[in-house]
C-alpha cells in the first residue's frame, strides 16, 4: 500500500492504495518496418524476467525463428527467421506479441508454407490477383495459374520492347483474321468455279484463262483433294503436303514444279477467303520448294520433213477405188496452221486464235494482236515467199484460221506424222523457225522481235542449233506446183 507519493524502484510502499512494484513502459500496437540488423544485446527491462535473449523457437530440434530483445537503439522485440531462403525480420512492441508471431511463423515453416515469405502488401496483391483470375475463370471457363499468367506477361513485355500490352492487343485485333473451317474438297470446288469465270471474256476481249488451262489445273486440284479425304483446309500441314508431292517422285522436275505451282495458287486463294491464316507457313514445306528443272532439249524438224508435212497436208484425199477400202485422211485444213507455225514461228495457241483478216490486213506481215498473243503484246511478223505460196489458196476475208479446237488439231497433226513416219518434236515447228532465223541473221534481237521472245532466251536456247545453210534451206521450202498465186507482199525473198 502506498501513501500517494511515487515510490522509487525497489522501495517498500506504505499507503491506502495498492501499487505494483514494476514500472510499465508505454507500448505501440503498430508493427514496425522490417529490420534485418542482427543483435544479441542484453535487454534493458522485460515483462518476462525469466526469459533469456536471444530466444530461439524450435521445431523438432531445429531452430526456425529467433526473438531478439529490446535495446537502446532498437526499442522493440524483433522476430527473425529464414523464409524461402531469405532472412526476414519484423519488429513488435511487446514480447507476448513477438512470441505469438514467432510461434505462428514456426508452425508455417514446419508445414512448408511459403506464404510467410510475403510482406503484408505482397500478400494483399497476391490475394487480389487470385480473385481476378477466378473472375476470369467464371467469365470464360478457362483456368489460369498465377505463375503462368505472370510468366507470359513478362515474356511478352520483353518482346514488346517498351510498348504496353494494351497497345499490342489493340494492334493485333485490328489485323487478326478469323479462320473459317471448310472441308478441303469444298474449298477446291469453290476455287475451280471461281477460276472458270476467268475463261469467259466479254465481246471483243480475250479471257484471262484458257479453257484448257482451267480444265487441267482443276483436274490436278481434285486429285489433291482426294489425297486428303475428310480434312479441312485449316488442317493441312507441311507433312501432308510432303506426302502429296511424294506421289510424283518419278516425274520430271518441270512436272513437279507445275504441280507445286497449282497447290501454291490454291493456298494463296485460301488465305484470301480466310480459310487459312496469313501466317500458315505451309509454303515452307520442303517438297513445295521450287527445284531446278532439266534444261529442255530443243528438237527441230528438218527442211525435208517440213516439205513432207506441208505437201501431204495440201493433197486432197484420193478417191476410194475398192469396196471396203478405208478413205484417205483429209489434212488440207491443217496446212495453214503448219505453215504459220513453221514459216512464221507462231505459237500453236496464237494460231488457233488467229483469223484470216489478221493474216492479210497488213501488207507483207501477219498481225498478232494483243488479244491473241501469249505476251498480250501486239507484234508484226514479216512473211517469207515460201509462206505466201503455201497460203495462196487459203486466202479468206473472214473467219478463223482453225475452227476445230486445240484437241482436234493435235489429233490430226499426230495422225499426219504417223502416216509419214515423222518423229514428234515438242513445239518442233516453232523451234525450227527460231533456230533457222537466228542461224541466218545472227541477230537475237530481230529474231526475238518476230517470235515474241526475249533476246536473252533466243541467244540462250537457240544459238548454234542449226547452221546458216540449214536455216536457208528451211525458208526455201515452197510448194513445187502453184497456180493463181495471191502475193502477200513478202518482206524478204531470202529468209523472212
Describe what you observe in this structure.
Helix content is 43%, strand content 7%. The chain is rod-shaped and about 140 Å long. A hairpin with a 2-residue loop joins strand 3 and strand 4. It has 18 helices and 6 strands. Helix 15 runs antiparallel to helix 16.
Which keywords apply here?
496 residues, 6 strands, 4-stranded antiparallel β-sheet, rod-shaped, alpha+beta, disordered C terminus
Summarize, please.
The chain has helices spanning 95-110, 120-140, 146-160, 165-175, 184-196, 211-227, 238-246, 253-272, 303-314, 335-343, 348-353, 356-360, 385-390, 405-420, 428-441, 444-451, 455-462, 468-475; strands at residues 55-59, 62-68, 77-83, 86-92, 365-368, 379-382. The chain has 496 residues and is an alpha+beta fold.
How do the helices and strands line up, and which of them pair or pack?
Blueprint: E1 55-59, E2 62-68, E3 77-83, E4 86-92, H1 95-110, H2 120-140, H3 146-160, H4 165-175, H5 184-196, H6 211-227, H7 238-246, H8 253-272, H9 303-314, H10 335-343, H11 348-353, H12 356-360, E5 365-368, E6 379-382, H13 385-390, H14 405-420, H15 428-441, H16 444-451, H17 455-462, H18 468-475
Antiparallel strand pairs: 1-2, 2-3, 3-4, 5-6
Helix pairs in contact: 5-6, 6-8, 9-10, 10-15, 15-16, 15-18, 16-17
Number of helices: 18
Order of helices and strands: EEEEHHHHHHHHHHHHEEHHHHHH
Widest sheet: strand ordering:
1-2-3-4
- List low-confidence stretches: 1-46, 482-496
Amino acid at each position: 500500500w502506498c501513501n500517494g507519493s511515487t515510490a522509487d524502484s525497489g522501495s517498500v510502499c506504505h499507503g491506502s492504495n495498492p501499487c505494483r512494484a514494476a514500472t510499465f513502459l508505454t507500448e505501440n500496437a503498430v508493427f514496425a518496418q522490417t529490420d534485418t540488423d542482427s543483435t544479441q544485446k542484453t535487454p534493458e527491462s522485460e515483462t518476462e524476467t525469466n526469459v533469456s535473449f536471444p530466444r530461439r523457437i524450435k521445431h523438432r530440434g531445429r531452430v526456425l525463428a529467433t526473438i531478439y530483445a529490446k535495446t537502446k537503439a532498437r526499442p522493440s522485440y524483433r522476430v527473425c527467421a529464414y523464409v524461402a531462403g531469405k532472412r526476414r525480420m519484423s519488429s513488435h512492441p511487446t514480447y507476448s506479441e513477438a512470441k505469438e508471431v514467432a510461434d505462428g511463423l514456426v508452425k508455417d515453416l514446419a508445414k512448408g508454407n511459403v506464404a510467410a515469405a510475403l510482406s503484408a502488401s505482397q500478400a494483399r496483391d497476391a490475394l487480389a490477383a487470385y480473385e481476378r483470375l477466378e473472375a476470369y475463370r467464371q467469365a470464360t471457363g478457362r483456368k489460369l495459374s498465377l505463375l503462368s499468367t505472370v510468366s507470359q506477361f513478362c515474356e511478352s513485355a520483353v518482346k514488346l520492347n517498351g510498348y504496353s500490352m494494351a497497345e499490342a492487343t489493340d494492334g493485333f485485333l485490328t489485323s487478326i483474321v478469323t479462320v473459317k473451317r471448310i472441308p478441303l474438297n469444298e474449298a477446291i470446288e469453290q476455287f475451280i468455279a471461281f477460276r472458270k469465270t476467268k475463261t469467259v471474256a466479254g465481246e471483243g476481249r480475250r479471257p484471262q484463262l484458257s479453257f484448257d488451262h482451267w480444265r487441267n489445273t482443276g483436274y490436278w486440284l481434285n486429285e489433291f483433294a482426294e489425297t486428303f479425304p475428310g480434312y479441312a483446309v485449316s488442317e493441312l500441314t507441311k507433312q501432308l503436303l510432303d506426302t502429296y508431292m511424294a506421289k510424283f517422285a518419278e516425274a520430271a522436275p518441270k512436272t513437279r514444279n507445275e504441280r507445286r505451282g497449282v497447290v501454291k495458287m490454291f493456298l494463296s486463294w485460301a488465305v484470301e477467303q480466310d480459310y487459312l491464316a496469313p501466317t500458315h507457313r505451309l509454303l515452307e514445306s520442303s517438297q513445295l520448294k521450287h527445284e531446278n528443272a532439266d534444261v529442255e532439249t530443243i528438237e527441230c524438224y528438218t527442211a525435208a520433213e517440213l516439205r513432207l508435212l506441208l505437201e501431204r497436208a495440201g493433197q486432197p484425199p484420193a478417191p476410194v477405188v475398192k469396196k471396203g477400202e478405208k478413205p484417205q485422211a483429209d489434212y488440207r485444213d491443217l496446212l495453214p496452221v503448219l505453215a504459220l507455225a513453221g514459216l512464221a514461228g507462231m505459237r500453236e495457241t496464237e494460231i488457233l486464235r488467229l483469223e484470216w483478216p489478221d493474216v492479210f490486213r497488213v501488207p507483207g506481215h501477219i498481225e498478232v494482236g494483243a488479244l491473241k498473243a501469249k505476251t498480250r503484246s501486239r507484234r508484226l511478223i514479216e512473211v517469207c515467199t515460201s509462206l505466201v505460196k503455201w497460203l495462196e489458196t487459203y486466202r479468206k476475208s473472214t473467219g478463223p484460221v482453225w475452227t476445230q479446237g486445240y484437241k482436234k488439231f493435235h489429233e490430226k497433226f499426230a495422225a499426219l506424222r504417223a502416216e509419214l513416219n515423222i518423229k514428234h518434236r515438242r513445239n518442233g515447228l516453232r523451234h525450227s523457225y527460231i533456230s533457222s532465223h537466228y542461224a541466218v541473221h545472227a541477230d537475237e534481237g530481230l529474231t526475238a522481235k518476230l517470235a515474241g521472245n526475249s533476246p536473252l532466251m533466243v541467244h540462250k536456247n537457240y544459238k548454234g542449233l542449226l547452221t546458216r545453210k540449214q536455216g536457208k534451206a528451211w525458208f526455201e521450202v515452197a510448194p513445187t506446183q502453184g497456180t493463181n498465186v495471191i502475193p502477200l507482199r513478202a518482206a524478204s525473198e531470202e529468209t523472212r
